[in-house]
Amino acid sequence: MALFDDEAARPKRVHEIGQDLSLLSVDELGERVRLLHDEIARLEAEIAAKGTTRQAAEAIFRLR
Q1: Is 1 a residue whose pLDDT tops 60?
Q2: What is the pLDDT of residue 42?
Q3: Residue 54: what pLDDT?
Q4: pLDDT tens digits, one per residue of 29-61
Q5: Contact status, residue 32 vs residue 24, Cβ threshold 8 Å
Q6: For 19, which DSSP code?
Q7: pLDDT in tens, 22-36
Q8: How many whole angstroms separate alpha carbon 32 and alpha carbon 54?
Q9: pTM as predicted
Q10: Residue 12: inside a domain, yes or no?
Q11: Does 47 reside within a domain?
């Protein structure tokens, strides 16, 4: 292992909404698209989980 790890020194790239995309390569743009699709799926799963929890709570309170 090298004394200095260049990969660890680089900050993780984050996509910013409205960011200038002209400086990114096609590969970088594709990676951003994949990351955003994954994030959308994660957000939708959380929405579904919260909806299920809410429905369960509403069902409990309807029984009382």
Answers
A1: no
A2: 97
A3: 79
A4: 999 999 999 999 999 999 999 988 878 878 888
A5: yes
A6: -
A7: 999 999 999 999 999
A8: 33
A9: 0.61
A10: no
A11: yes
Contact 39, 31 (CB under 8 A): no
Quote the tokens at residue 62.
């309807």
Q: Per the structure, how many domains does the chain have?
A: 1
- Encoding tokens for residue 43? 């957000």
CB environment 27-63: b (16+ within 10 A), e (fewer):
eeeeebeeeeeeeeeeeeeeeeeeeeeeeeeeeeeee
1 occurs within a structural domain = no
Asked, for residue 3, whether it belongs to a domain, the answer is no
- Would you state the structure tokens that stand for residue 18, as one six-digit string? 């409205």
Would you state the pLDDT for residue 45?
A: 95
Name the token pair of 35.
Answer: 């990351």
Domain of 55? 25-64
Distance, CA of 21 to CA of 47 (rounded, Å)? 29
